[in-house]
Amino acid sequence: MKQKRSLFDRTLIITTIVCLLPLVFSVMVYQDLPDQVAIHFNAAGDPDGYASKAFAAFILPLLLTLLNVVLQVALKSDPKRDPSERIYHISRWIIAPLNLFLCPLTLLIALGKPIQVERVVPLAVSILFLIIGNYLPKCKLNYTIGFKLPWTLASEYNWKKTHRFAGWLWTGVSIVCILGMLVGLSAVPLFLVGIPIIAIAPVLYSFILYRTEQATDTV
Fold first, then answer.
1. Domain ranges of the chain
2. Where is the DUF1648 domain positioned along the sequence (predicted)?
């Protein structure tokens, strides 16, 4: 009889601690924050969404910490997970550094620091996509990571081909976006073109593979 694995492990504990670290910074700067803090920005970097300083300083990091715990449990509960895969560990570490980066960044902007959020955040997102794209081709069939479509889950061949294609695509688009922003291009047109490509093209590719497999099986 198999021993039941605990959902709570070292990675969950460490990532949760990392998620809570921004609270230390929040306590340090709380008195200097304005009553209303911008928590959302438009494509030009102008604030278009506000919250109380208590929400921005404390509730937002706690919500992301809770999201991290939910993600950890979901990944650990996947019966087809492969703990030896790099992308599995990257997925478990996605939220913690984002929380550590975004929450203090939000407070620094509220304190009047000259941060170009319209460039910094898209650049960070592009780097994240580049890292994920590098490991997508190595992603084995599972229920929580990757392009989980009816035909990819039903066919290991389709899964492998789709994620190999997606990996190259995500890597290429991410590099184009990073280079574009580094030479001064706006992130808006780059993302308006790039995001639909990396989201839709692998789905269409996998569906074409599925239809081709079906046609072959009926011959």
1. 10-218
2. 17-64
